[in-house]
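Fig. S4 source data, part A: sequence.
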Amino acid sequence: MRAVDLIIKKKNGGTLTREEIKFLVSGYVNGNIPDYQMSSLLMAICFRGLTAQEQSDLTMEMLLSGESVDLSSIKGICVDKHSTGGVGDKTTLVVAPLAAACGLKMAKMSGRGLGHTGGTLDKLESIPGFRISLTPEEFFRQVQDISLAVVGQTANIAPADKKLYALRDVTGTVESTGLIASSIMSKKLASGASHILLDVKVGDGAFMKNLEAARELAQAMVAIGNSQGRKTVALLTDMDQPLGFAVGNALEVIEAIETLKGRGPKDLETLALKIVSELLLMTGLEKTEAEASERASRALADGSALDKLRAMIERQGGDSRVLDDYSLFS
């Protein structure tokens, strides 16, 4: 089996088998397939696409390239939330502490910027001293103690995706439904949560510019998640304009803090409440939309969600004074 033959096969519209995908992924991870050949394959995929089976096979091979996190030792329901990103998307910074305040366990591994958007990790690192790297023991203990941790994807979690993720960013191959779906779901499945909510952005400020493309991506990811025994739900949310008013890492963290204080932009607050309400419903903690919405709104209004963010910042070495003094941001 040769990489060049598989590149040509995909370029001509062929379908790659599981064994061929395994050969390509493992070969790239161990260095037998160089960047220039993988770049060529990624571009062929961008033009030709991936079938549902290819997406599933690519997801699983990237997942199997490393370790998976076992969250079974954590008491409670472990959930994960992912946004496909867009200009000004700082949703995780509000949703994660809000979900934790509502009784869910948010054990989250986040990413850096891809394309024109900043990632959650980039934003959190604007908090002085904040550590995005925790030992497994620190991660599990923190989630058990305060129901919340947001850390970086470790080298052992889907290393194939981590390597491909960086290559896509510099080769113009970010905007491919199959590659996005496989990349996201390899990390989500490896991260160990039993319930996964996907916030798929659609509009001028998102990767998915129209509803049809966003729905295609959402359906692909939900199918992959559910096929692996994870309860997976997707929401299609508007990104025709930036979310909130702030764009830029530190500015977006400040806006998220303001939202947790009840003073943020209404579009961000409404979306965060919707996502957390959906998490409460899909996990069975609440039975009706009204009850879920009321529980999420109460956690925002009484300050318990802000307290969770404060606790996370302190546990991960950050200066929690930034919550009250924005001049401390780096």
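Fig. S4 source data, part B ends here. Residues 149 and 193 are 13 Å apart (CA to CA).
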